[in-house]
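Sequence dictates fold. Below is an illustrative record:

_____
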Amino acid sequence: MIINWLTSDTDNMLSILSIVGMGGLGKTTLAQLVYNDPRIEGKFIVKAWVCVSEEFDVLNVSRAILDTFTKSTENSDWLEIVHTKLKDKLRGNRFLLVLDDVWNESRPKWEVVQNALVCGAQGSRILVTTRSQKVASTMRSEQHHLQQLQEDYCWKLFAKHAFHDDNPQPNPGYNEIGMKIVEKCGGLPLALKSIGSLLQNKSFVSDWENILKSEIWEIEDSDIVPALAVSYHHLPPHLKTCFAYCALFPKDYEFDRECLIQLWMAENFLHCHQGSKSPEEVGQQYFNDLLSRYLKEQPSNLHELTNLHRLEFVNTKIIKVPPHLGKLKNLQVSMSSFDVGKSSEFTIQQLGELNLHGRLSFRGLQNIKNPSDALAADLKNKTRLVELELEWNWNRNPDDSAKERDAIVIENLQPSKHLEKLSIRNYGGKQFPNWLSNNSLSNVVFLKLHNCQSCERLPSLGLLPFLENLEISSLDGIVSIGADFHGNGTSSFPSLETLKFSSMKAWEKWECEAVIGAFPCLQYLSISKCPKLKGDLPEQLLPLKKLQISECKQLEASAPRALELDLKDFGKLQLDRASLKKLRMGGHSAETSLLEKSDTLKELKGLWEAIPLWKAWG
């Protein structure tokens, strides 16, 4: 209806339509959708959006309209001057003006403002949003009344924000309580979104029950929508104070982040524990927490900012971006995370159009149903993306079909050779991607592989020339680590400084005897929670700064030389004392043989097992 009204030919010089409905129904959201609808592109020479709010001061409203149309600031206090400039701007031009949140019921005041708007060309339109039918009558406008959402749409909107999914299948307990909470929201979209976002951070059914049973739902004679009051009431105390402080500012006030943080600091709202973060850092965290709860989408006209060079989505829950954002080829886009499948209006394919910079964490990669969608993200050509996390849900048990799909998806998510940091979590495929073994990531310095339980072989990571830090954990399918891990090179892992293995339940042997010249720069080696590991450890290493072994009760080997040893719950180790300066021992069933007397050992710490060892040292 509204689009037809905007685009229809009419003899009227100026036509007015009011969207009428109670607070929280989505009047402003509907007006925004209409304002940015591609079907009205080219219909109007100029467009303007003005938030009016409760106080309808004729001069201020007229000046705001002029400023928005001219994209400048008018400082005159003379109404006649303001109206003259406004008429000059609109004369002969077909315009669209949105007056958002109008409360004025005085017809004389409106007529003064309207007199400056009647000089526009035929087909000019004024779209109004208001809670009051009397306001619409005062403006002699047509009316479009919004109604509450129907029950099925209520649940979909609530679930979209509470479960990260348009079609959730949550725990039945959450499902039942969620339906009751939805009923209390009364079909108001704003209430459903606010409560859904609040519950998104509540991981226990008891938390949901507390919100359902809150007495705030029963408050009567209040201008505040109950669901919004509940949402505010259940904010953490520190955020509640900071959020309430923002109410001192006018509606639609544009906050400067650094300025707001300084104001919070002046009011002593920021709680800094001794020796922890600075007040500025705490304020930044508070700001981001509030932002992540309430910022949902970016302005639809963002693509019109042709001189914009950098755009950051940090700690936000973006579910929609402007459709033409990818046209800004010089725009650098940074986003801390992307939840796959969270929104049908912001898909992984759209990332292919963006010039991504910095760090990006993919979550929920199991939601990719068509692996070609991953290829469309075009990560291989994101040369400014230096840090990448690929993450699937941790608590799933993929079948063979899902494992095959995971393998294709990760292959299609190959990053550029400029990547520096990579983490892969909860991957369900049976083998790691080829691009991790063929030296495609020649600039990677940090790599983490976690909970990839179906993989039976490690990739040839020894070929990565600049890899400095490698962490491998919870790979339950790995039984043996052999020459293929080192890359069969004469100098594998040439830059590696830190190597950590942990929670490798099935790992039995590290075949490192034939590897010559490996790990020339290794300083820290940690092996923990590998209960079946029995075989050798690399012996040809230069003295490590630290060797840490814990909960490896079957391990029997000669330990590499190290300046510091931290040992707990191991089997039998032969230690070279020549360079040893610090030894810590703990746990039970530990047996240690010291090969040479040490003149450098300065510290020995441990349990009772270490006492006879210390005496034997002499």
Remarks:
- The mean pLDDT is 80.
